[in-house]
Sequence to fold (209 residues):
Amino acid sequence: METLTPSTPPPSPLEPPKGGGRNPLALVVVAVVAAGMLYLGLHMTHRPRPHLTQATLAPDFTLQSLDGKSMSLSDLRGKAVLLNFWATWCTPCKIEMPWFVELQNEYGAKGLQIVGVAMDDASKEDIAKFAKDMGVNYPILIGKEAVGDQYGGVPALPETFFIGRDGKIVDKILGLKGKGDIEEDIQKALDTQPAQMPAASASAVSVPK
Fold:
C-alpha cells in the first residue's frame, strides 16, 4: 500500500518566512526613513546663511552674560567692538585670549570693547571658571546657535568680527592669527566714525506766540 506523506502547510502571511529571510515591507520602511533623515541632514547643512562682508551692519543680538545680565550689541554703538566667538575646548582660543586681555587694557580707554561669546555646551559655572583662570577682563556672553547663524554659522572657532563705531563690520578673522593682525583690525575699527543721528529740524515745530 502506498504511504501518503502530509504536505507542509504554507506559511501564514503574518509569519516571517523561515530561514532568516527579511520582510520586504520592513526593508521599504527602513529605506524611506533613512532617505528622509538624509534629506533633512542635507537640508540643515545647506541652509542659507547670511554672508557678512565689510561695511555690513553687524546683526544685533541680546545674550546673557555670566553675571546674569542681558547685553545687546546695540548697547555698544559708538564704541569699536571686537566680537569673539570661542569655546572652552578650543585650543587656539586659549592662545589668543591673553592677547585680548592685554588689548582691552591698552585700547579700552580709546573706545574699544571686547566681547566674548561662548559657543559650547559647558555649563555657565564651567565657563565662568575658565574665564577667571584666563584672567578675562571683558564681558563673556552665553552664546546661542541662532546668534551664530546670524553671523554666517560660525564654521570654525575662534572667529572674530571687528565692528566699527557706526555698527558696521570692518573685518573678520577666521581661526588664529597673530596679535599684530588683531591689533591692526582693532585700529581700523577705532578709526571709524559713529553714525550720525538725524537732527530734528527746528523749523518743523511752530510755537504760537
User: Anything to note?
Assistant: The first strand starts at residue 62 and ends at 64.
